[in-house]
Amino acid sequence: MRFFSFFALACAGLQAASALPVYNPVNDHVARDDLSTVLGVSSRDIQFLEARNKNKDTHKHVPPPPPAVTFEKNKNLPHAAHGALDKLNLHSDKRKKVEDYHRKVVEDHMKTIPGAHHAVINNLAHSTGSRDPHIHISATIHDIHGAVIGAPRRGNPAIVDPTHHIYVNKDHPADGYKNLPIEYTKAVYKKRKAEGKTPGTV
Hints:
This protein is of the alpha+beta class.
């Protein structure tokens, strides 16, 4: 009877011990410091390895972000893109649609330029006031180091200009007006009419 009681007590003790959580020194910040001393690495490195191990199963390949395209803000330039958007009285959703359209056209063009990294839109889509009669966006394209990537001049490719003329209708440059977002053409129409200029173009 005594042997049976001792055996039952031992089994109960083993069962209780197995229910205890397993101590992991890496989860204890004091033990982590001791572990870092033994391994010769910093506690921060150990925390990094913990996070990396924890997330390795859920890590997914994230595609690189699209090229950065911004709008020229130099107020000394009369047709600077950012100020032009203000002058067109474009705000909120309408402005976002126009900005997104311009960014997309420039981003697509950048994909054809080796080494293109980021760009600045100098002028919004236009044809008036330019020697190029087709509607285009003027943009300066830079490589990863910030150097300007020039473009052959239209009609005289021997000359390289710092500014790219990016047609809004690449396949049919002479027919670019219909490709423009309605928010943009309406805003330009309203502005030109108020200025006494011929509407229906940009």
